[in-house]
């Protein structure tokens, strides 16, 4: 009886987290804590999965939901499109440009327009302050996040993880944006110094984080590289290394950088 009462209490006390929505035929998972500010003052973190992943996978591994509940902001986990014709539908990717990544890039999917449209849809429907939209992504999602900062005025700040800016050319939207790029020093999938990886997808010539910093700084953004010692490409390994080094999680550090942890 005691265990039953405890379970009922926890169920009643648990936050209203998962909200399912969609935009242009792609599923969206939203984290909507109970302690949100009034409509119009809310913040949103847009999270993009890596190549071959999906929104559910990065939601489980990033650990952002507990941070969102603690500090009162929303999180949107978006989905790319099918990574390859012969791959399962659950394996998705983003067209981040510069040869990245997979079928979306080869077929010219306009993911910049999709992500901006999805974020604006969420902004209007859920009362988000347009000046408090932030971006995160891992691997292919990090490269997509950097492409968005370069080409679209969506994010005020972003934390790309394990992925550089892979396109060349102008970055007109980067002015006054703020970026902290997190990258494992031992990353063999997307090397921090650029070039072809020796693990995972090995047919993409990745730009370096030094290149990314140079471009964004040139176009008026602030760009800080957090090279994580002892970490490889895996999101969970980077999180573990940061917890050991800094005493807080990767998700908490990102929220802190976005200014979302202030009382």
Account of the protein in words:
There is one protein chain. The longest helix has 16 residues. This protein has one domain: 3-Layer(aba) Sandwich (Rossmann fold). The chain has an eight-stranded mixed sheet with strand order 1-2-4-3-7-8-9-12, with helices on both faces. It has a two-stranded antiparallel sheet with strand order 5-6. Strands 10-11 form a two-stranded antiparallel sheet. With 263 residues, it is of the alpha/beta class. It is built from nine helices and twelve strands.
Topology:
Elements: H1 2-13, E1 18-23, E2 26-31, E3 42-48, H2 55-62, H3 64-71, E4 74-78, E5 81-82, E6 92-93, H4 102-106, H5 111-126, E7 128-138, H6 140-151, E8 157-161, E9 178-184, E10 195-196, E11 205-206, H7 209-218, E12 222-228, H8 235-246, H9 250-257
Parallel strand pairs: 3-4, 3-7, 7-8, 8-9, 9-12
Antiparallel strand pairs: 1-2, 2-4, 5-6, 10-11
Which labels suit this protein?
263 residues, alpha/beta, Rossmann fold, 8-stranded mixed β-sheet, 24% strand, disordered N terminus
């Amino acid at each position: 009886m005691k265990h039953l009462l405890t379970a009922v209490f926890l169920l009643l006390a648990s936050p209203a987290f998962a909200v399912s929505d969609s935009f242009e035929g792609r599923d969206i998972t939203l984290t909507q804590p109970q302690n949100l500010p009034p409509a119009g003052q809310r913040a949103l973190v847009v999270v993009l999965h890596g190549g071959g992943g999906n929104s559910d996978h990065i939601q489980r591994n990033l650990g952002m939901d507990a941070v969102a509940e603690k500090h009162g902001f929303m999180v949107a986990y978006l989905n790319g499109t099918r990574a390859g014709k012969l791959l399962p539908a659950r394996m998705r990717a983003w067209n981040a440009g510069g040869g990245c990544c997979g079928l979306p890039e080869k077929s010219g999917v306009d993911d910049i327009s999709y992500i901006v449209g999805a974020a604006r849809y969420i902004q209007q429907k859920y009362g988000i302050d347009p000046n408090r939209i932030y971006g995160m992504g891992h691997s292919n999602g990090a490269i997509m996040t950097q492409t968005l900062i370069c080409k679209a005025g969506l994010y005020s700040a972003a934390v790309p993880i394990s992925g550089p800016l892979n396109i060349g050319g102008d970055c007109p939207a980067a002015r006054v944006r703020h970026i902290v790029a997190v990258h494992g020093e031992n990353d063999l999938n997307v090397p921090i110094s650029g070039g072809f990886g020796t693990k995972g997808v090995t047919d993409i010539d990745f730009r370096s984080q030094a290149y990314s910093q140079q471009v964004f700084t040139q176009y008026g953004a602030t760009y800080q590289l957090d090279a994580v010692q002892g970490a490889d490409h895996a999101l969970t390994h980077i999180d573990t290394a940061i917890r050991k080094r800094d005493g807080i999680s990767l998700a908490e550090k990102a929220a802190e950088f976005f200014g979302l942890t202030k009382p």
